[in-house]
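The following block was generated as part of the benchmark described in Methods. Ligand: GLP.
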Amino acid sequence: MRRIILDTYEDVCRAAADVYTEQLKEKPNSVLGLATGSTPIGLYDELVRRYDAGALDFSKARSFNLDEYYPIKKDHPQSYNYFMRKHLFDKINISKYSLPNGEAADAEAECLRYDVEISDAGGIDLMLLGIGHNGHIGFNEPAVSYPMGTTHVELAKSSVDANSRFFGLDETQPTEALTMGIGEIMRCKKIILLITGEGKAEIAMKLFERKIHTDIPACFLKLHPDTTVFLDRAAARDIIVFEEALKRERIKAVQEWTGLRG
Ligand code: GLP
């Protein structure tokens, strides 16, 4: 898992947009994996800017989103379907986009259908991920075991609380979702994970410990052959402090050792 720390949120969005630009240049008919949440909004804005400037063409590409609330109507302003149309799909020329269907009558059947659709498309070339404060990716919440394919899940209370800011007081917030499983995510050929803002500093630090915490779903990405994590300095705050302290200690140890020898 590669790590790139950049100064600001805008730098992270530009770097992520560069990855998408490169991907589409190399393979115009790429299958793109996309995510929701506040983190990727700046990336989507940047992709739209590049598309408007004629630097990006999505006409041969198609996409699959990570997850969707369940149940939820496509036109509900808080549905991920609505979010994606508002921030990206209505503004670019993507040939086809898919999300798990939050309106499906049978959630389990919809999960199987979504997996087949992804596999029929040849799998995902480039997947975008954000991370929850508890380390969730998609809606794979911390658990003892994780799903391989798309699954109907119950959200952790902390995720419901974190996302409640988007729902009005009179709106019912879904507590369930349909999400690609960890296995599905691990099958993506290339992955980029964006971690930004001070609020994510703690989980970013945990993710980069030299361990696989099985209760941090994002830790599985350490086993993926081509994952790059982009962080801004705010999210990398604890990592930077820790590594600087480590460096100072190492210098001190070397100085003591060479002093002793001298
Ligand atoms: C939701 C989504 C995740 C996203 C997470 C973080 O729970 N299901 O895919 O990564 O939120 O969102 P934010 O970027 O707003 O912190």
